[in-house]
Amino acid sequence: MSELLEIDGSVLEGGGQILRMSVALSALLSVPVRIYNIRANRQKPGLAAQHVKGIQLVAEMCRAKLKGATIGSTEIEFSPGKIRGGHYVADPKTAGSISLLLQVALPFALMADGPVTLDLRGGTNAEMAPQIDYMDMIFRPLVQKFGANFSLKIHRRGYYPRGGGHVKVNVTPIRRLNSITLLDSGTITSVKGTSFVAGALPIKMAYEMSDGVKEHLKSECKNVNIHCYKEEMARDNCSGIIVSCTLSGSGGCVVGGGELGRRGTVAAHVGRALGAQLAATWRARACLDRHAQDQVIIYMALADGKSAVKTEELTLHTKTAIHIVELIAKIKFNVESNDDHHIIECTGLGYTNKNLPVE
Length: 359
Description:
Blueprint: E1 5-8, H1 16-29, E2 33-36, H2 49-61, E3 65-67, E4 75-79, E5 86-90, H3 98-109, E6 116-122, H4 132-145, E7 150-156, E8 165-171, E9 181-182, E10 188-198, H5 204-217, E11 224-231, E12 238-247, E13 254-260, H6 267-283, H7 290-302, E14 306-311, H8 316-329, E15 333-337, E16 342-347
Parallel strand pairs: 1-2, 5-6, 9-14, 10-11
Antiparallel strand pairs: 2-4, 3-4, 6-8, 7-8, 10-12, 12-13, 14-16, 15-16
Helix pairs in contact: 1-2, 1-3, 1-8, 2-3, 5-6, 7-8
């Protein structure tokens, strides 16, 4: 095994993003890594339960040698093996984000030697992470453009503080990823979404969030369908809204976002906040929203050929993802900045899944 590549977990975003990107690329590219100063920029530095389970999930899937993966640890060593298909379970026993568990596992599940089933537990709609509905409604169509796919079934929703959510994801491995070009956004042709409440919260809050979003949507699109409902099976109070917008451009793009309600925040204001966020995406004529930016970087890096995507201002998470990919994969991203939009480009590695049996 080659020498460990040193990665400083305090740079840029300085949180879990560095950890997720580093172990995923380590597993894919067979590059052993030592990550130190983990989550140094957070109020409670070091690994939380969801980070430990995410790393352990990756390690199990590729038979890695793993050191330091305990709650509170600020340093780990990860030495990967072969990526294998199978059935894998990750349960942090908290409301930690299921979407972030999927985010770290999906890129290399696509490069396993056989089908992968991920049994993921925790929070389906959590703060500081994409809601699970976003991963299905918006991110999955984006992954399909790379020639990949996954199916997702929500068996039970889980919210802060107790979690208890359960999502099953099925992944069929592929030989390689296609490059993508998403530069033509066009106009909004349709909008769909869900607005929900759970626990003791009244259903009227779901309608108020929906109305708040529609205040921003009405001038852009007449075809708006937001389903408002009360979640009956969850154990805790929660409210939120998720919206996806289908665009008419040549790339067939889908952009969107979501917001969660907060104690003391008027429900309509939650919807208006999401509406303002979507309006910023439209003003930039973006083909990629701010929540997909950082997630797409690893797929662009692995793809066969040159990829280019038009987006709004780069988030710190996206800048961090680019930094980690350039460090581990040794490829270069280019960002072309304009007044109202940015274009992210790179020529991918043309990574080939050699774990799959030859047909």
